[in-house]
Amino acid sequence: MNNKQKNIQEIINHLKTSGFVYQNSEIYGGLINTWDYGPLAIQMLNEIKKYWIREFITREKNYQIDSKIIMNANVWKASGHLDNFSDYLIENKVNQKRYRADHIVKDLFPEINVEKTTFEELESIIKNKVKEYDGYKCDWTTIRPFNLMFKTQLGAIDNAASITYLRPETAQGIFVNFRNVTRTMRAKLPFGIGQIGKSFRNEITPRDFIFRTREFEQMELEYFCLENESEKFYKYWIQKCQEFIILLGLKKENIRIRPHEKEELSHYSKGTSDIEYLFPFGWGELLGIANRGNYDLSQHMKFSQESLEYLQEDGSKVVPYVIEPSIGLDRLLLALLIDSYEVEKLDKNDERIVLKLDFNVSPYQLAIFPLLKKLAPHAQKIYDELLKNTNFRLIYDETGSIGKRYRRQDAIGTPFAITIDFESLENNTVTIRNRDSMIQERININEITLYLNKFKK
Ligand code: ATP
Questions:
Q1: pLDDT digits (tens, 9 = 90+) for 121-180
Q2: Which of 88, 121, 297, 344, by CA, is between 20 and 30 Å from 264?
Q3: Could you tell which of 208, 209, 216, 296 is best to mutate to test the pocket of ligand 1, judged by most ligand atoms within 8 Å of the CB?
Q4: Binding pocket residue ranges, ligand 1, CB within 6 Å
Q5: CATH topology of domain 3-85+148-336
Q6: Is residue 78 within 8 Å of 304, Cβ to Cβ?
Q7: DSSP H stretches of helix in 38-100
């Protein structure tokens, strides 16, 4: 199946009923477009983060930090988020619903490049051409910018000085710690500082399941370098991001790089490229790589009156350039789940749902079954020993027919299953079944680790 043929609603239902995703606050009727992650999604997210740390931090000799979600409000003045981090909102007075103007135009006039369209143009297109939308006749208000930052209040006193914001990106926590890391770690250019953490945006229209939500998680790296090397590193990190998502198992044909055109770039950006993924609802941004110049550090110098310059070996000072690969974990998880989802016809009346996830990111890597309940003690012993002596993610199941147990594991992406049968008692062997080929082989119990290690990346 290619992604256009996949039915997103069917995939969502599968993820909701099998332990990946739950509706947030479900017993109270839910909260609009807000989702909680179940045990299976968490296992995947943990692995994705481990690979990001390995590929973007450890092997690159970069540094990882963890700054706070709530920061001094001046951070957001300096970064420009207070003044500019807005989407254009328009309301239909008939049903009193608010929409993102660019989304309406994108939905109805796909031939128009909304990234290049000014808000006056968006307003005129909507007012003149959109007479019915979302099932209602339309009477549009004027368009207005809507700031996406969540406002909150610090402490018990409710005044202007206590107002602050939930971070809309993790990057600023890195910029304001640039000097701390440079000094305490004696970091030498070029080097990167990364972090993984929650960000919040009061999206006007959260939609498309976990693609666009108000609370989400990012893995961001700020790679500091000299201006004359910034183009080289910009290209390097685009390449690296592409390799990273392919390493996790995304198919090449569902990925494309989209460099932003001049009109789309933020005023400070020297270049931005999105890596897009072909979701069943169309191409969408999975992650972005930006050459942000030295805008952020310069702004924080201006607003804080502190020097964030880097002292070079010859004694001269520079404000470094920065390349930012910014990855959304939730979107990456969604892409991996969609990419791997297959419904396979087995014979005339039989089909199976299978998640063909890579061995390294699947929630479980090996299932352990006793063929019959009678063999449970023996199978449990093998399970406990593997738990103690290996790091594989294991699941044990003794309920239902063996065929049903295989299907259950196929549906949650477990790549291998071993079955303990009567022969196991005689010669210490088990059958190992491959999720994708469904072929079974007999191997010695002592060979399981060796067998699985071949799939590690
Ligand atoms: P979009 O244009 O889709 O709103 P963006 O260009 O504003 O995204 P960035 O600011 O570049 O996004 O954020 C970096 C990454 O964070 C995105 O590529 C995406 O993976 C993730 N991200 C951003 N906003 C959301 C959101 N509301 N929900 C989930 N992930 C998000």
A1: 999 999 999 999 999 999 999 999 999 999 999 988 878 778 999 999 999 999 999 999
A2: 297
A3: 216
A4: 169, 201, 203, 212-213, 216, 218, 285-288, 326, 328, 330-331
A5: BirA Bifunctional Protein; domain 2 (3.30.930)
A6: yes
A7: 39-52, 74-79, 81-84
